[in-house]
Design goal:
266 residues, alpha/beta, 8-stranded mixed sheet, 12 helices, 8 strands, globular
Length: 266
């Protein structure tokens, strides 16, 4: 693993795995997360691919930003790829990371070879009633108070409640979540809502003509699993529903998720 810190230029932290000359595969995490959430899949993905993980603004090792609008985040990711001299990249986003991936393709089709969206809600109507803890975090003024008093146990429960299978949450992952400020968390959530309210993701992708893979857990508690079929509006899109898997396929079923992604890339 190699770390490439571009904070001075774009306020983002990037981690590399695998051969530098291999086909580039960019992984973008979701809300309230970091690049560490991809760790269970890294060994398999990096065997032949140059795997790039980015910590989005305010997450992981990247400092907070003034704006958490999805297009703004995507523009920063594009600048990093330009700095690295990368193009023809397979871009993979988990959950709201899929919005950043989609916006990146909208802005810079010259950089994106194909898109893989994992547990990425297609539209506001697909959102299910959220767990009590998440509702509290999004409700002022309780959210800020609860956020400031989170214990490691609470953070783990907050992640686990989105899964349908047991997941291992190492200390470094918990530390990454703890380091996210409440302002950043709310900013990201508000930015996500604005992006898919303006136009749903399948509608955005249908206009791009980019090969697309959609992976959804059939037991996702955050987004209605059947909403994955909305991506049928994207010409040629491949859609895979994983039985008994929740919102975190890369942690709940890393082997199967990795196989689907590698098969798509190939």
């Amino acid at each position: 693993m190699r770390e490439y810190d571009v904070r001075q230029a774009h306020d983002l932290h990037v981690t590399h795995d695998g051969p530098g000359q291999g086909p580039p595969l960019l992984l973008i995490h979701g809300s309230g997360a970091s690049g560490a959430f991809w760790q269970p899949m890294i060994q398999a993905l990096s065997a032949r691919h140059h795997v790039i993980r980015v910590d989005l603004p305010g997450c992981g090792h990247s400092p907070p930003a003034r704006s958490y609008d999805v297009p703004h985040q995507a523009a920063r990711v594009a600048a990093v790829l330009d700095d690295l001299g990368l193009s023809d990249v397979t871009v993979t986003g988990h959950s709201s990371g899929g919005y950043v991936a989609t916006s990146l393709a909208e802005q810079r089709q010259d950089l994106v070879r194909s898109l893989a969206l994992i547990s990425t809600g297609p539209s506001p109507a697909a959102l299910l009633p959220q767990p009590l803890l998440l509702r509290l975090l999004l409700t002022p003024p309780f959210g800020r108070l609860v956020w400031s008093r989170r214990s490691d146990t609470m953070i783990r429960k907050g992640v686990e409640v989105t899964a349908a299978r047991p997941v291992h949450l190492p200390d470094d992952l918990v530390a990454d979540v703890r380091g996210i400020t409440y302002r950043a968390f709310r900013g990201v959530m508000d930015g996500n809502t604005a992006y898919i309210t303006e136009r749903d993701v399948p509608g955005r992708l249908a206009a791009l003509g980019i090969p697309t893979l959609v992976i959804f857990g059939a037991a996702d508690p955050r987004w209605e699993p059947s909403s994955a079929r909305q991506y049928e509006a994207v010409p040629g899109a491949r859609i895979d529903l994983l039985p008994g898997v929740g919102h975190l396929p890369m942690m709940e079923a890393p082997g199967l998720t990795g196989e689907l992604l590698l098969d798509f890339v190939t």
